């Protein structure tokens, strides 16, 4: 009797690509969830630790800054460490640090635990897309990435609502403890099915100066936009942050050009196939988070709604994205087109302009329709645009490309949050108002929110122009 030869790693990964996808989706979900679930717990944490809000905000910002600063490092190391090993270690670190966050009894310990949690999230996110691109054949990648898009939307939906329930029912530590059982359960299939064909590539000496300069650059960007978004702006501090950021950028570029084994291959940014969809992705996230940051202020400040009512409206766009993403993913697989990203982000811009009109006229119906349209067109944009970015680079650079996707996404989020705040505050200051946004009154606020949405719509139009293929 002839024995069946064992499956090769590539054959094994292809046969079990669905369980592998499930493992990846859970990791993405946890990382996205922790990007926004903490926001709802901040007031309670601030009160419990008896610290100013300016200090407690580092609980949120330390996480995202750490991801931006380290995700490229893990993408660079993935060919050496192995994508499967890196992902499993990342999930284990994320689970352990989540438990440490919940057990932290001082603010410094909590921030430190969040930094470690951000490192675990960066390990997960740095090679998630690369793993999907590796295990799924070309004709199934659109659908697979559509599920990733839907998972991101699910994380955005559940985060605030789940955070509120956990804080009210069990206390703020449970916004972190919730990750522990999920992560432990998913480690079992991760170890069982993540047996990938690894290239076994080697890199020379790690670019330690490049790593230090990149971390400094990201810290400078975060400090600069944070200062700009919190008026009254201290011009001395703002100028110092700007000089520091530009100096770090110049030093990083010079270092990477001369390094034998650079952290970041700057030649990527000479390839239009990579640069244009990447720029479009940043603008897309800037526009998205302008909306996300101002929507609650509009409904509470203008319409007088309660947070629960606002949360229901905030569900509309992510739900539309979740429902439509797999459908458009299958459409892309059957009828691929390089202009799906341009169509998607342009349609999203149309939804944003319509939302601005709804804000100005105080029409809830128009706003809801606009959010549905924006969610549908987000699905058309995000999956195909990700494929364009990942497909523009050779297979051996998949880990780097996956890491850069995370950096671009989080940079867009950071800039979008800051832009939303700046747009509101500058307009109010121009009208002579310097108080809290919610106290400005329904008579003053509608056109201000409308203008902010028009700015988001313009970001989408520019993104469509950038990514359009003639």
Automatic annotation (TrEMBL):
Transmembrane segments: 20-45, 57-77, 84-105, 111-132, 144-166, 172-194, 206-225, 237-254, 274-298, 310-328, 340-359, 365-381, 402-428, 448-468
InterPro entries, per the entry: EmrB-like, MFS, MFS_dom, MFS_trans_sf
Subcellular location, record wording: Cell membrane
Gene Ontology terms for molecular function: transmembrane transporter activity
Pfam families found in the cross-reference section: MFS_1 (PF07690)
Record's bilayer topology term: Multi-pass membrane protein
Major facilitator superfamily (MFS) profile domain segment(s): 20-470
Superkingdom, natural source: Archaea
Main location group: membrane
UniProt KW keywords: Cell membrane, Membrane, Transmembrane, Transmembrane helix, Transport
Keyword GTP-binding attached: no
Keyword Lipid biosynthesis in record: no
Gene Ontology CC annotations of this record: plasma membrane
Alphabetical list of NCBIfam families matching this protein: efflux_EmrB
Protein name per Swiss-Prot or TrEMBL: Major facilitator superfamily MFS_1
């Amino acid at each position: 009797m002839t024995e069946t030869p064992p499956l090769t790693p590539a054959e094994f990964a292809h046969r079990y690509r669905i369980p592998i996808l499930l493992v990846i989706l859970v990791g993405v979900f946890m990382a996205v969830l922790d990007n926004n679930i903490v926001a709802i717990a901040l007031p309670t944490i601030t009160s419990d630790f008896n610290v100013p809000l300016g200090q407690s905000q580092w609980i949120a910002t330390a996480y995202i800054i750490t991801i931006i600063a380290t995700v490229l490092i893990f993408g660079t190391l993935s060919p050496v460490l192995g994508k499967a090993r890196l992902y499993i270690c990342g999930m284990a670190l994320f689970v352990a640090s989540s438990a440490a966050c919940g057990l932290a009894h001082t603010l410094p310990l909590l921030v430190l635990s969040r930094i470690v949690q951000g490192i675990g999230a960066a390990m997960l996110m740095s090679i998630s897309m690369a793993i999907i691109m590796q295990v799924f054949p070309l004709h199934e990648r659109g659908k697979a990435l559509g599920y990733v898009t839907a998972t991101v939307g699910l994380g955005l939906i559940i985060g605030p609502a789940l955070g509120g329930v956990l804080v009210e029912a069990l206390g703020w530590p449970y916004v972190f403890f919730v990750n522990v059982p999920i992560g432990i359960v998913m480690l079992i299939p991760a170890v069982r099915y993540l047996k990938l064909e690894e290239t076994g590539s080697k890199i020379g000496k790690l670019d330690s100066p490049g790593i230090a300069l990149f971390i400094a650059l990201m810290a400078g960007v975060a400090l600069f936009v944070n200062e700009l978004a919190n008026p009254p702006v201290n011009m001395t501090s703002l100028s110092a942050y700007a000089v520091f950021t530009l100096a770090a950028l110049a030093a990083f570029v010079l270092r990477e050009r001369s390094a034998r084994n650079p952290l970041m291959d700057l030649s990527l940014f000479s390839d239009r196939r990579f640069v244009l969809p990447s720029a479009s992705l940043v603008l897309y996230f800037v526009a998205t988070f302008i909306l996300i940051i101002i929507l609650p202020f509009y409904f509470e400040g203008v319409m007088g709604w309660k947070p629960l009512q606002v949360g229901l409206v905030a569900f509309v766009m992510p739900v539309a994205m979740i429902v439509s993403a797999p459908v458009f993913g299958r459409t892309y697989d059957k009828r691929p087109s390089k202009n799906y990203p341009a169509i998607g982000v342009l349609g999203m811009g149309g939804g944003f302009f319509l939302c601005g009109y709804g804000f100005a006229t105080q029409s809830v119906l128009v706003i809801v329709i606009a959010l549905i349209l924006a969610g549908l067109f987000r699905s058309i944009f995000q999956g195909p645009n990700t494929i364009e970015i990942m497909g523009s680079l050779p297979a051996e650079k998949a880990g780097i490309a996956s890491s850069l996707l995370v950096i671009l996404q989080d940079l867009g989020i950071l800039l979008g949050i800051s832009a939303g705040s700046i747009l509101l505050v500058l307009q109010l200051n121009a009208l002579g108002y310097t108080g809290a946004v919610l106290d400005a009154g329904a008579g003053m606020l509608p056109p201000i929110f409308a203008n902010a949405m028009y700015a988001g719509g313009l970001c989408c139009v520019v993104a469509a122009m950038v990514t359009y293929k003639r």
